[in-house]
Amino acid sequence: MNSIGENGRIRVGLAQLNSTDHKPRNLQAAEKAVRRLAGGGAELIVLPEHFDFIGADSLKAAEAEPLDSSSCLISLANLAEELGCYIHCGSFLEKDGDRIFNTGAVFDPSGRRIARYRKIHLFDVEIPGGKIYRESAVISPGGETASFSIGPFSFGMATCYDLRFPELFRRLVLGGANVILLPAAFTLQTGRDHWQVLLRARAIENLCWVVAVGQWGAAPPNHLCYGRSMVVNPWGLVVAQAADGVTSLVAEIDIDAVTRTRTEFPALDHVRDDLFDF
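RE: above sequence
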């Protein structure tokens, strides 16, 4: 019987990658990072958003794969079983009929998929400097929240731009989440000013752990990702942060920190759900 997390602690591995439009190379880099993190004691390993492919919109349809037959997910499932750990793919391009989703999937130590999350909020913005992003030009939005459990930990799932929508996080936490996992490919331009501020805010508002894993560096056609993957505790303090570059880190999170913080500062008990619909 698997005992990961049952002692109220779990070691989370964050794999900061630099994915591009070369899928085989991306998968090789992901496997290398997973093996390194598992060797360092990580029990739950999280990859960033679009671990499988970052490239031109015109190429995404051809790179998208069905959830149940995706070669990149099958590889991760096999790794999870081989290494005896949980693996969150971050996200990949999922093909479902004539639609494409930005989808996260989680595998347990037996290689079984235990969760799927399709990114709800799509990045359709013009950022400072005039660069325009239209994620919805290719990607369809998801319509359901998702979470999974390991021992006493309930992990809520979100992806990148979701970070800017606190109502999603509040709904996950009111549904039982005590940790939020956020794979991302945050832009350098917005990340410099907003990434840490938003991550700490979501942790503070919800008195929960936040584990955020980012892409880093340049990718085609003209993406530039911020990186700075980090772990934020339920009081809103950054307890671990990755350096720039392709790198990884392992941080231990504990359930007692959630219980203690929510007891000493019981803001969630004061939520007015009679006035606000979560």
